[in-house]
Amino acid sequence: MLSTEPPGKVLDLRVTDSTYTTLSLSWTKPKEEKGVQDEAKGYFVDIRPAESTEWDRCNTNHVIMSSFTVKGMKSMAMYWVRVIAANDGGEGEPQDLDNYVLAM
Prior knowledge:
Layout: E1 11-18, E2 23-28, E3 42-49, E4 56-57, E5 67-70, E6 78-87, E7 90-91, E8 95-96, E9 101-102
Antiparallel strand pairs: 1-2, 2-5, 3-4, 3-6, 6-7, 6-8, 6-9
């Protein structure tokens, strides 16, 4: 029975579009390394309002595409955003956006 290692961090995470209430993200699939990190099967997107310490998961089921649009953000609010790759071995380490995002 082969054990699966969780995937690595996604690469090149960036904002592709934003409105007052939505944020579109894209990223590149993590690299695979035998015995270290296996292929990502999907992704979770988490956001956290700047004044909060709790991350909110945006998608209950992982997305397979390497892009996602966060909806329902508060206009002019600041958010931290991260993407987590996942597979049968679990979730990889989160990749955070370098800067917070302002919904506008």
